[in-house]
Amino acid sequence: MRISQLFYQTLKEVPRDAQIPSHQLMFRAGMIQQLASGIYNYLPLAQKSLRKIETIIREELEKKGCQEVLLPVVQPAELWEKSGRWGYYGPELLRFKDRKNGDFCLGPTHEEVITDMVSKVLKSYKQLPWNLFQIQGKFRDEVRPRFGLMRGREFIMKDGYSFDTDEEASKETYWKMYEAYTAIFKRCGLTFRAVDAATGNIGGDMSHEFQVLAKSGEDMILSCDSCDYAANAEKASTPRTASNLTAEGQLPLEDIHTPGSRTIEEVSRFLKKDGSDFIKSIVYMIDDEAVLVLIRGDMEINESKLQTLCEANAVFLADDQTVLDVTGADTGFAGPVGLRKEIKIVADYSVTSSLNLVSGANRNDYHKINVNYSRDFKADLLGDLSFASAGDPCPKCAGKLEEHRGIEVGQVFYLGTKYSIPMECNYLDKDGKAHPAVMGCYGIGVGRTLAASIEQNHDEDGIIWPMAISPFEAVILPLQMNKEEVVEAGNSLYNNLVAAGIDVALDDREERAGFKFKDADLIGYPIQIIIGARSLEAGDVEIKIRKTGEKKNVPLDEIEMFVQKFIREEKEI
C-alpha cells in the first residue's frame, strides 16, 4: 500500500473522553472514528489488524475441528422467552418491535439462536460432536460505554458453541477450546493469564477468562505467588468455612434505639463499634424471590458468587417497597431476627465466626445487639459471598494471593444443558432414547483483543505492534522525494517486498523526514526501512526496529532476506 493512497489521517489531538492509551492512539493513528457513543467506524489500518486476528482465530479453531457459520444479528423474542432469558438479561438487551408489532432484540450473544438452529438438524448421537463458531457484530446497550473498543455498545465478537452427547465429552471439548484460545493469544503476541471466572448471564458452572495483563485493565486478577492458581476477583476464593460458635460469652439479645443512624458507618459511630462487629443485611431479588443476604459489616457482597451459590439467572437489589414488605422497616434497618415475613436467608461464612454482633432490628431507628448465629438465627444457605484480596491465603496451596490488572479478551464456558433442555435440542441414543445435548460456549472480543494489544504494547511515541497483528509488517521511508535515486530505490524495494509476500507500506508522500518518522512511530510499523541519499551512496539503507529502537545499516541487496528473517522470528516468539 502506498501511503499517499491510504484512507487515514493522523491527529495531534484526541477527544477528551479518550482516557486510556488504546483509545487515544487509535484515534491519533487514524484507525477509528466515533459515530455515536460506544459505536465506531473501523478505518483501513484497524480493519487490517482485525482481519489478521480473525485469521489466527479461524486457523486455530479449524485445527480443533470447528466449523464456521453466520447467524442473524436480529433475534426474535420468542427464542429468548423459550430459554427464560427475555425477562432476566437486563437493559443491555436492546429490544424493539417490527412493523407487525413483533418483539425482537439486537443480539448481544447467540446461545438461543445457535441452539434453535442445531435442534432443527440434530437427530442422532452419531452426528455429534459439533463445534460451531461465527465472527460477527454484536450489540449491548452499555449504560456507560467507555475506553473506545474496550467497552463499546457495538463490537466484533467471535462466539462459538459446542454440542456433545454427555458431560465427559463436553468437558473434553471445553479443554480443547482452552488450548485453542491459549494458542490464539500466544500467536497474537500477547502476555496473558487464563483465570478461573464467574459465568454471569451466560450461565453454566465452569468458566475461564483470558486476561491480557495491562496497568489500565478494568479487571482485578488474583494469582498465587507459589502455584498456578489464578482467578478473576469476582470468582477468586480463599479457604473459609462456617464456624461453630459456643454458648460461652454470648450476651442477651437487646434492641437499641439508634435515632438518625441507618448505615453501618453511622451506627458504628453511635455505638462506638467497628464495622467487623456488624452483620450487613441486604434484601435481594434472586430471580423472582426476595432473599435476605448477610455478610460481616466490614465486607462487601460479591454478587457473582451470590448468583452462583443460588444457581440464579439474575440477582439485583430489592426496591424500597419490597424491603418494607419483608422487614417491616425502611431500607437500612434490615436484620435476620424478627422479619415481618419469613423469607430465605443466604449468609456468608463470616457471620458465623464472631460473637455478639449488631444488626438491623427490622424497625425504624432501632438495631439489635448481641446477635449470634445458631442461637438467634440460621441461614438456609451458607457459602463464600465475599471478595478475596491480595494477601489472602491461596485456596490451592500455602501461598498468598497477589493482585494484577487485566483486560478480558476471551472466555470459555461449560454450559451443560442450561439451553438445550428449554430449547429442546435433543438427540436419540443407540436405544432410541432422547437426551439433551451438552453444550459449551466460547467467546473472543476481536476488537478488544486489538485494543488490549495496544494497552500492553505502546510508548510515548505511539503503538508498538506485535508482528502477527500489525496492520503492516514494515514501512519504507524514502526521505528525499525530490531525488530520483531515492524514489527509485524506494519503489524498487517496495515491489520486491510485495512480491516476496511481505505486508509492506511505502510512505511516498511529499513530507519532511521528521513528519514521516513521527507517523511511523505513532502507527507502530514493526520495521522501518529508511532510504536516504547518503546511505544509498554506500549501498546501504537504515533499519529501525520499533520495539527496541535499535538501528542498523543493511546492504540494499540483503534487505529482503533481513526483513523475512526478522518477521519469521518475531512471529515465532
From TrEMBL:
<dbReference type="GO" id="GO:0004827">
    <property type="term" value="F:proline-tRNA ligase activity"/>
</dbReference>
<keyword id="KW-0030">Aminoacyl-tRNA synthetase</keyword>
<dbReference type="InterPro" id="IPR006195">
    <property type="entry name" value="aa-tRNA-synth_II"/>
</dbReference>
<dbReference type="InterPro" id="IPR050062">
    <property type="entry name" value="Pro-tRNA_synthetase"/>
</dbReference>
<dbReference type="InterPro" id="IPR036754">
    <property type="entry name" value="YbaK/aa-tRNA-synt-asso_dom_sf"/>
</dbReference>
<dbReference type="InterPro" id="IPR002314">
    <property type="entry name" value="aa-tRNA-synt_IIb"/>
</dbReference>
<dbReference type="InterPro" id="IPR004500">
    <property type="entry name" value="Pro-tRNA-synth_IIa_bac-type"/>
</dbReference>
<keyword id="KW-0547">Nucleotide-binding</keyword>
<keyword id="KW-0648">Protein biosynthesis</keyword>
<comment type="function">
    <text>Catalyzes the attachment of proline to tRNA(Pro) in a two-step reaction: proline is first activated by ATP to form Pro-AMP and then transferred to the acceptor end of tRNA(Pro). As ProRS can inadvertently accommodate and process non-cognate amino acids such as alanine and cysteine, to avoid such errors it has two additional distinct editing activities against alanine. One activity is designated as 'pretransfer' editing and involves the tRNA(Pro)-independent hydrolysis of activated Ala-AMP.</text>
</comment>
<comment type="subunit">
    <text>Homodimer.</text>
</comment>
<keyword id="KW-0067">ATP-binding</keyword>
<dbReference type="InterPro" id="IPR033730">
    <property type="entry name" value="ProRS_core_prok"/>
</dbReference>
<dbReference type="InterPro" id="IPR045864">
    <property type="entry name" value="aa-tRNA-synth_II/BPL/LPL"/>
</dbReference>
<comment type="similarity">
    <text>Belongs to the class-II aminoacyl-tRNA synthetase family. ProS type 1 subfamily.</text>
</comment>
<dbReference type="Pfam" id="PF04073">
    <property type="entry name" value="tRNA_edit"/>
</dbReference>
<dbReference type="GO" id="GO:0005524">
    <property type="term" value="F:ATP binding"/>
</dbReference>
<dbReference type="GO" id="GO:0002161">
    <property type="term" value="F:aminoacyl-tRNA deacylase activity"/>
</dbReference>
<dbReference type="GO" id="GO:0005829">
    <property type="term" value="C:cytosol"/>
</dbReference>
<dbReference type="InterPro" id="IPR023717">
    <property type="entry name" value="Pro-tRNA-Synthase_IIa_type1"/>
</dbReference>
<dbReference type="InterPro" id="IPR004154">
    <property type="entry name" value="Anticodon-bd"/>
</dbReference>
<protein>
    <recommendedName>
        <fullName>Proline--tRNA ligase</fullName>
        <ecNumber>6.1.1.15</ecNumber>
    </recommendedName>
</protein>
<dbReference type="InterPro" id="IPR036621">
    <property type="entry name" value="Anticodon-bd_dom_sf"/>
</dbReference>
<dbReference type="InterPro" id="IPR002316">
    <property type="entry name" value="Pro-tRNA-ligase_IIa"/>
</dbReference>
<feature type="domain" description="Aminoacyl-transfer RNA synthetases class-II family profile">
    <location>
        <begin position="51"/>
        <end position="466"/>
    </location>
</feature>
<dbReference type="InterPro" id="IPR007214">
    <property type="entry name" value="YbaK/aa-tRNA-synth-assoc-dom"/>
</dbReference>
<dbReference type="GO" id="GO:0006433">
    <property type="term" value="P:prolyl-tRNA aminoacylation"/>
</dbReference>
<dbReference type="Pfam" id="PF00587">
    <property type="entry name" value="tRNA-synt_2b"/>
</dbReference>
<dbReference type="Pfam" id="PF03129">
    <property type="entry name" value="HGTP_anticodon"/>
</dbReference>
<keyword id="KW-0436">Ligase</keyword>
<dbReference type="InterPro" id="IPR044140">
    <property type="entry name" value="ProRS_anticodon_short"/>
</dbReference>
<keyword id="KW-0963">Cytoplasm</keyword>
